[in-house]
Design a protein that fits this description.
430 residues, alpha/beta, Rossmann fold, 5-stranded mixed β-sheet, 4-stranded parallel β-sheet, globular, membrane
């Protein structure tokens, strides 16, 4: 049993493809029409619902490694004018000794070999990245970069910051994620649709300033909603546990929400949440939350806000797996600091004092006393539930039964008609 995952633009070919696959292999094919999260990720949840033993993923992909099922990616072959692309590269990099790393969208990976044959004889310091599906075997070699499903070896003594980046593909989330992660490298791109090359003018400093503003919002937050944006990427469950522990030690309340693809209407149903953190793949984690009721941050930004041991170094991380234990960018949580010895901090947004130290994790989330007693149920729930805590602070809490307080009366005849003109109301004559 095999699951075939198609993006929306390729669903028209799903019937013919599945029929040919069944005739050729004898396996039973299931078409995944609409994915739970982004179409670039493998939807293992939907595949497990039909008992699939493998997944064939068609179209653009983020190449995030999966947790359980074996995956075969079929990227497709979008048309690329290799000659025009090479010409645009020469115009952007007239110096033949330029150090350049060539990246591409997965739908143009089939033409990178031909482009490499044209440019490598002229540019001795050019590097072409290779696609990497799944977890690579063994640790990375010195100078080897493994990010976003791409793999390349940097030979310069100064590292990657001595290189420029050349991206083959249209403008989108993948390019934005590349530019924020490798923000010390100048970027150029070639759009195969328009057949034009250009130097990217994205103001990385302004984009990073916007993200750092969201870090300040996360520091001020008292209640954090953890949005599950993927369940198929390896390490997502470990990150959810890590975020819960981080927020608990930072003195913030949190609860986990699985709402599928986030939207302003969905998240507006949780007004008690001060900020959301989205656990998704590297391409979908950078969500523009300008239209949302509350800001949405990435796991790395939440770590900057809550982990005192992690400092801003200028490098931005979009892959949440870099934060897990054993990763190159993992930072251990420091020891707890007594409240009397903690150094207070002032919010740059509200101007109020706030605590920035970590406390010891509580031994239990349940109320310490189990003695039988009459107590306010809403107040008891507020001790362990952020939603109940928000409800406790409101003056109107919904309909109340008020048992024994309402006088008993017989049923009487009510009004008849519609609200604009009941039958017992007089009508004014014109």
């Amino acid at each position: 049993q095999v699951a075939l995952q198609f993006p929306d633009e390729l669903l028209a070919d799903a019937v013919e493809v599945s029929a040919r696959m069944e005739a050729a292999t004898g396996a039973q094919m299931y078409v995944l029409g609409d994915t739970t999260y982004g179409s670039c990720c493998v939807d293992e949840v939907a595949a497990e619902h039909v008992g699939a033993e493998a997944v064939l993923h068609y179209g653009p992909a983020c190449l995030s490694p999966c947790r359980k099922l074996p995956v075969l990616h079929i990227f497709g072959r979008q048309r690329l004018d290799v000659g025009r692309c090479a010409e645009a590269f020469r115009e952007l990099f007239p110096e033949r000794q330029s150090r350049v790393v060539v990246l591409s969208d997965v739908v143009y990976a089939h033409a990178m070999g031909e482009l490499e044959q044209q440019l490598c004889p002229e540019y001795p310091n050019i590097i072409f990245s290779r696609l990497m599906c799944g977890e690579p075997p063994g640790p990375a070699a010195p100078g080897e970069e493994r990010k976003f499903g791409r793999q390349f070896l940097v030979e310069a003594a100064g590292g990657l910051q001595d290189y420029a980046m050349f991206y083959v593909g249209a403008e989108g989330l993948a390019l934005t994620s590349f530019m924020l992660t490798w923000n010390r490298c100048p970027f150029s791109s070639f759009d195969p649709v328009t057949a034009r090359g250009r130097r990217e003018t994205l103001n990385v400093s302004r984009a990073l300033a916007r993200r750092l503003y969201l870090v300040e919002r996360a520091r001020d937050a008292g209640v954090v909603g953890i949005l599950v944006g993927t369940l198929g990427v390896a390490g997502c469950l470990a990150l959810l546990q890590h975020l819960r522990q981080l927020l608990r030690r930072a003195g913030k309340r949190s609860y986990t929400l699985a709402v599928g693809k986030p939207s302003p209407a969905k998240l507006a149903n949780f007004p008690e949440v001060d900020v959301f953190v989205l656990v998704a793949c590297a391409q979908n984690s950078l969500l523009d939350s300008s239209d949302f009721y509350r800001p949405v941050v990435t796991p790395y930004e939440l770590e900057l806000a809550c982990n005192p041991a992690r400092a801003w170094t200028g490098s931005y991380l979009t892959d949440f797996r870099d934060l897990l234990p054993g990763a190159c960018a993992h930072v251990e949580l420091p020891a707890a600091v007594p409240a009397a010895e903690a150094v207070p901090d002032v919010s740059l947004i509200t101007g109020k004092m706030r605590a920035t130290h970590l406390c010891d994790p509580p031994t239990s989330q349940l109320p310490p006393s189990t003695t039988l007693a009459c107590r306010d149920q809403t107040r008891a729930l507020a001790e362990i539930s952020p939603a109940a805590s928000f409800l406790e602070s409101r003056s109107w809490r919904g309909l109340e039964q008020q048992l024994g307080q309402t006088p008993i009366s017989k049923a009487v005849q009510g009004r008849r008609g519609i609200a604009i003109a009941y039958e017992d109301e007089g009508c004014e004559q014109p």
